[in-house]
Design goal:
By secondary structure, this protein is α/β, with parallel strands linked by helices. About 30% of the residues lie in helices and about 15% in strands. It has helices spanning about 30-35, 45-50, 60-70, 80-90, 100, 105-110, and strands at about 25, 55, 95, 115-120, 125-130. The chain starts with about 20 loop residues before the first strand and ends in a 13-residue tail after the last strand.
Amino acid sequence: MAAKPPRCVLPLPEHGHAGADARALVLDTNIVLDLLVFADPAVAPVRTLLQAQRLCWVATPPMRDELARVLSAVCKDADDQHFIDLAVAHRAILLSKDKAVLCMQKRLLALGAQAATAIVFEADGWAGVSPVGAATTPLAVLAA
């Protein structure tokens, strides 16, 4: 059983001392993604304290470069990037069987798009998108 990460209580400046007296905060790239992309409720207090200027997010240029690289949502296969860019631009469903595209499902969802292997119709009409990795057999697939 994995041990829980250490939890600590940190003293923060009072409400009236925002800005210059804010406590410096270094954020790992995964926490930044939770904060800015995935809106993880676990980091909501961090967002609140940053907005209130009680915490000051500090980062080095290499940290910013890593974040920019991670946020670019670039597919490993450059030929597939055109499809991803278009799906994100239109907040669309991207139908694909390409593993390099489908592995980007989480990033696409964060950007308002969705990757799927099929669009499924039930006998009585629209049922929705077959999620990546789902073990369903579509009754009909919408084709462009």
